[in-house]
Amino acid sequence: MLLYAKKYAICHFCSNFAIIMLITTQAIVLHTIKYGDQKLITDLYTRRQGRLSFAVNIPKTTQGKLKKQYFQPLTMLTIEADLRQQAPLQKLRDVALLAPFSSLLTNPSKLSISIFISEFLYHALRSEQQDEPMFDYIAASLQWLDGCTTSYANFHLVFLMHLSRFLGFYPNLDQPIGEHATPLYFDLRAASFCQHPPVHRDFLPPEEAGMLRLMMRMDYPTMHLFQLNRQQRNRCIEVALQFYRLHLPDFPDLRSLDVLRELWND
Predict the structure, then answer these.
(1) Distance CA 135, CA 209 (A)
(2) Are residues 29 and 67 in the same domain?
(3) Is the dihedral of CA 241, 246, 247, 250 positive or negative?
(4) How do residues 15-34 score in pLDDT, each as one tens digit?
(5) Among residues 69, 59, 62, which one has the least CA distance to residue 39?
(6) What pTM did the predictor assign?
(7) Does 115 lie in the same domain as 81?
(8) If exposure means fewest CB atoms within 10 Å of the residue's CB, which of 184, 185, 193, 230 is most exposed?
């Protein structure tokens, strides 16, 4: 009995030891809340491990490695962390800024976009596992917006629609064979064009289906060539979010959308 207990204790220790892993990875801050006087709970999307949550103790002195300003939404970090399987909150060992932003969090228009993007990603990446191409897309997009000086009013439209490719429901833009001259509807559930309206309500009429095709042709370098007024831009983002709600379970209404709607008078 004593021998069995010793073997169990050794196996239990080895098992616990095996599931602790030290990693170094790039990360993007999705959301942070204050917990007590000196603790933060922060959600990060990491390049190597997907989404992870951390409990962060912020030291009272300025000499500590973990600084509160590192955990603003969308901040890009390099982190060193201890990971434990099935632990709801992980432990950070060290943090450094990966790519400091010069204007994303200070320019009022860019700040409004970044608040929207961070809230969107917090819900859209709720259960995402490791996906290095998607991480790289998000990181490159944020750096592009930070460095851009003009003509970025359509950024959030391009970002959302192209992110759907990584999440597995990118719209099928192919038209039905033999229907090139026929006005087409777009079935938001099936993510494809169709000749006749579906039996459900989640579809776009031909005039808005054409707008979706226009949105999908945009990219960051050329999006300034697509002239949209504020009403058209707001309708496009409403359609994009409706599309996400249909394909991501429990995707909520975003509180930051109201601020985004008020940007740009043209």
Answers:
(1) 29
(2) yes
(3) positive
(4) 444 477 889 999 999 999 98
(5) 59
(6) 0.86
(7) no
(8) 230
Query: Which of 195, 158, 162 has the alpha carbon at shortest distance from 176?
Result: 195
Average pLDDT over residues 102-116: 92
Distances (CA, A) of 246 to 156, 233, 237, 253: 19, 20, 14, 12
Q: How are the residues of the chain apportioned to helix, strand and coil, as percentages rounded to the nearest 5? A: 40, 20, 40
Q: Hey, what's the torsion of the CAs at 52, 45, 25, 79, to 10 degrees?
A: -70
Residue 53 forms beta bridges with which residues? 43
The predicted pLDDT at position 47 comes to: 95
> Is the Cα dihedral 203, 207, 210, 215 positive or negative?
negative
Distance CA 115, CA 257 (A): 9
Q: Last residue of some domain: 70, 97, 124? A: 97
CA distance 265 to 83: 47
| 81, part of any domain | yes
Looking at every residue in the chain, the average pLDDT score rounds to: 86
Site of tokens 């700040």: 111
The predicted-structure confidence for 193-225, as pLDDT tens digits, reads as follows: 998 999 999 999 998 998 888 888 889 998 888
CB 124 within 8 A of CB 251: yes
Rg (CA), the chain: 22
Q: Is the dihedral of CA 29, 167, 49, 142 positive or negative?
A: negative
